[in-house]
Amino acid sequence: MLLEKTLKSLLRDVQDFPKPGIIFKDITPLLNDPVARKKTVEAICDHFSKENIQALAAVEARGFIFGALIAQELNIPLIPIRKAGKLPYKKITEEYALEYGRAAIEMHEDAFATGCRILLHDDLLATGGTATAAGHLVQQLGGIVAGYSFIINLSFLPGESLLKERFGVTPHYLVKF
Question: pLDDT below 70 — which residues of the chain?
Fold first, then answer.
């Protein structure tokens, strides 16, 4: 509870970004606080420490920041999931709906071995579109969605229930709005 309060104090609301009507949750102040940043990574790693996670897939772009730190702390491989057209090697693609449009993400087709237990990380869970697409990429390559990690959950949107329904895992998050 103390960590959640600290994190909430370090998250900045930006009105009408990236489009009118959207309130963007900016994690930049959290990134500027080394103690809170470290506690964030520790809390996520503690939660997943007994889950036999074999790799972490992080979603571009803000998911990369904490994803890399979490993978380092857990001593597991980091798999980038990028916006379409950004990966240089053979890849698979998944299209999905955002709360304000459509997008596509990609992952290298040799990102992990079949049966690998993957933790998916992004900074924020909203409608679940990006997270669901990332989970589908993992499944397409024969991986197991072992968990979802977020810093922020916008609980008034359907993302959490969607991930529970589609992948049978309860997303882990540190802050709920």
Answer: 99-100
The answer to whether residue 166 is catalytic is no
Q: In this structure, are strands 23-26 and 55-59 parallel, antiparallel, or unpaired?
A: unpaired
Does residue 99 have an active-site annotation?
Answer: yes
Domain 51-176: assigned CATH number: 3.40.50.2020
Per the residue annotation, which of 42, 99, 117, 166 is the catalytic one?
A: 99
pLDDT of residue 99: 63
Q: If you write DSSP's letter for every residue of 136-159 in order, what string do you get? A: HHHHHTT-EEEEEEEEEE-TTSTH
Which candidate in 62, 82, 94, 160 is catalytic? 62
Phi, psi of 32 (to 5 degrees): -80, -5
106-137 confidence digits (pLDDT tens): 999 999 999 999 999 999 999 999 999 999 99
Domain ranges of the chain: 51-176
